[in-house]
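WARN  no MSA supplied for this record, continuing single-sequence
INFO  ligand: iron/sulfur cluster
INFO  echoing inputs
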Amino acid sequence: MTAMTHERPYGHWPEIGNPFPEEVAREVYRYEAVAAEHVRAARESVHGPSWERRRALPSSFRTQLKKAFQVLDQSHRYVLSHLRRTGSPVRCRPDCSHCCTQMPSGLTGAEILFLYDGLTVAGTVESAFRRCLERQEIWSQLSRWHPPGTARTREQELTRRLHQYHGLHIACPFLKGDLCSVYLHRPLPCRMHYSLSPPSWCRPSHFQHPHAVRFNLEPGPVVLEELDRLDAALGLQELSDLLICGFLEFVVNVMEFRPITWVE
Ligand code: SF4
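INFO  complex generated
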């Protein structure tokens, strides 16, 4: 099962047949180098003491991070057009939410910060916080409902819980109707998850779900290493990498419900 997550080592191509041709891989690498450059510029704009004391960041930080995600989106569109030309069209649409019952995982703190800022601008932090608390309660109960079986490593245990959570068919707290309410600020695991099979097959309750063909266009190391450096500059390395838990920790422990202060 392909979950909405990115796991190290990064940079795997989707296992949907032949590897991408060399020229496609080269072009993707070029996109990723540009995205990494934007993340680096965001990191270099951080003034440590201002962030520490006032949770203040320069507005160029937001611009650079937004550009990084936009370039990664462009890279995905390039790969998807290659897949379409070669007879493997992706079936996902912006208004499709069939995969939005997963718990996105593998997030960096920078992705959570970007999401938090989007919610702040929309004035929906508190309502999102309440919905995330409800989901976290369910998540934390999973280990009680399903005591660990044969899982031996932390990764295996996490994978087991992610699959179980998905099977509960609980909507993401950021889903409104069938639309992602944070679409422009959604994290990378949501941006890079695609399906070649009919969208409805992505639902665990669908009888064809075991045959769904999904894949993740994971960013390469050049991007993820820069995101890790950015997290280190912001002191966000210890946040949970699960969307819901990481978001709650960020709101309470990092921002203390304050907005980010943007300075020119
Ligand atoms: S953040 Fe948006 S895209 Fe991601 S799972 Fe939630 S509703 Fe879906």
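Residues 97, 100, 104, 172, 174-175, 180, 182, 186, 190 surround iron/sulfur cluster (CB under 6 Å).
INFO  checksum written, moving to next record
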